[in-house]
Design goal:
Length: 470
């Protein structure tokens, strides 16, 4: 019987703003060991015996970053299947699409192990024991989940009321009083968001409880763009179809309605890292209760989490704070208000503030660019192109560009000319001229780009040829 983990890498992780952004969300955050959350998820998934293929579901714009994070782990012999969404429609649509795809490719008796791509588990042996127990339940045509034994009255998690391994009901996030009563009763577990079932079982449950979702997702799969490469399959769902799928969670669509649900109570060192306070608990605190990361100078500071991504942060005589500093945004919050960070992030989105969407360092399939400075009619960027990568053949209606190579070698098309530039060499690209940048070398290409013109936003691009299909 085939076992296929399904990693869902979905929302923006707004509670971890400003480190998590819409275009570079929570799964890509790296922990103190240098490993990202999605890399931890992949490692856990492939540790399950018998796994030879991974299905990853994410927004299509995040594919290349996910593949880069996976490639860093250098795991050989593993097949990947990427299901790419044009927009998020929540977990019911994601799981429906995965179940239909897996059943079609491997059969309805294939066991799906469904994992969020942004959780952390510190006790790997305990996790594997619990997962194997849940897989056995799934083979008995049950839908099983891992229930975390609570150690405090947490209001940020959903709960499962259970009698042994039998699920009695799912409960939404409670207020503080209900959370305390749940903890005292001994009958409630935290809902981990990890599920195990045969693909055919999930399809049957969805046909019974949310038939419109599974029908629409099957239709989207039939019309999807498919491509294959060395060890991977790519399935791109189309916007016109997928935007019509009803948006709801798997909890509402299936779990709260279904019977024959099972739960494995466990202690596996689990956290969904749903707040900065939860993030802080991943690192042991010092004698003053502080977790300090990066360039931080603290005097008479207690019970605070402080993270600097660059510049020095100095604090004097403060307690119970969350301070997170990035290149373009600073968060300062009372430690008991960390759940409200999502409200702040959503407010920035409503107001159209760029810091909700992206960092100054922006990731692209070919590499990254970082905005160094902007002013009236000019913008300065640092551009880094991966070895062997190239940008699209393009032109701009409103800006000219001046490229100065500082490291590596650049192959450039500039109008009718093709040239190789070395460090300390440059070229000027006037408004309306076709151009392309490529790194033909084996080391990163780094250049400084100076843009001048009346309009300098990223949507002033006309692409004529693009190997990434944009």
């Amino acid at each position: 019987m085939v076992i296929i983990p399904v990693i869902i890498s979905g929302g923006p992780g707004a509670r971890l703003w400003p480190l998590s952004r819409e275009t570079y969300p929570k799964p890509f955050i790296r922990l103190s060991d240098g490993t990202s959350l999605i890399q931890h998820s992949l490692r856990r998934a492939i540790a399950i015996p018998g796994v030879e293929e991974i299905v990853t579901i994410s927004h299509r714009d995040r594919l290349f970053e996910i593949r880069d994070h996976y490639a860093e782990l250098a795991i050989g012999g593993l097949k990947h299947r990427f299901i790419l969404e044009p927009e998020g429609r929540d977990t019911a649509a994601a799981i429906a699409t995965a179940a239909a795809e897996i059943a079609g490719e491997h059969g309805g008796d294939t066991v799906m192990c469904i994992f969020p791509g942004d959780h952390i588990i510190t006790d790997q042996p305990a996790f594997l024991a619990a997962a194997n127990q849940a897989i056995a339940m799934a083979r008995d045509q049950r839908l099983a989940t891992l229930g975390i034994r609570p150690d405090k009255p947490e209001t940020a998690y959903g709960y499962i009321e259970a009698d042994g391994t039998q699920v009695l009901r799912f409960v939404e996030k409670p207020d503080a009083a209900r959370a305390r009563s749940f903890l005292a009763s001994g009958r409630f577990l935290w809902n981990s968001g990890m599920f195990f079932c045969q693909a055919g079982t999930m399809l049957t449950l969805m046909e019974e409880h949310c038939s419109d979702i599974i029908a629409d997702c099957r239709r989207c799969l039939e019309g999807a763009r498919r491509s294959t490469g060395d060890g991977f399959t790519q399935i791109e769902l189309l916007s016109d179809c997928f935007s019509e799928v009803r948006k709801t969670s798997i909890d509402y669509a299936v779990l709260e309605k279904a019977t024959k649900l099972a739960v494995v109570p466990c202690d596996i060192g689990w956290s969904d890292i749903g707040s900065w306070d939860a993030f802080a608990r991943l690192t042991p605190a010092d004698q003053q209760g502080n977790v300090l990361s990066g360039s931080v100078a603290a005097l008479d500071v207690k019970n605070s989490f402080v993270r600097s991504e660059g510049r020095l942060i100095g604090l004097i005589g403060v307690d119970d704070l969350i301070v997170v500093d990035t290149a373009d945004a600073l968060l300062v919050a009372a430690r008991d208000r960390v759940q409200d960070v999502k409200q702040l992030s959503n407010r920035l989105k409503i107001e159209g503030h760029k810091s909700y969407r992206e960092h100054p360092k922006v990731h692209r399939p070919w590499g990254t660019y970082t905005v160094l400075e902007t002013g009236p009619r000019f913008k300065i960027k640092r551009i880094e192109v991966k070895p062997g990568a190239r940008l699209s053949l393009q032109m701009h209606h409103h800006r000219s560009e001046h490229w100065i190579v500082v490291a590596g070698h650049a192959r450039i098309i500039n109008g009718d000319q093709e040239m190789i530039l070395e460090p300390d060499q440059s070229t000027y690209i006037p408004v309306g001229q076709r151009h392309r940048l490529e790194n033909p070398g084996a080391t990163p290409l780094i250049l400084i780009e100076v843009q001048t013109g009346a309009y300098l936003e990223e949507d002033d691009i006309v692409r004529f040829d693009d190997i990434y299909g944009r």
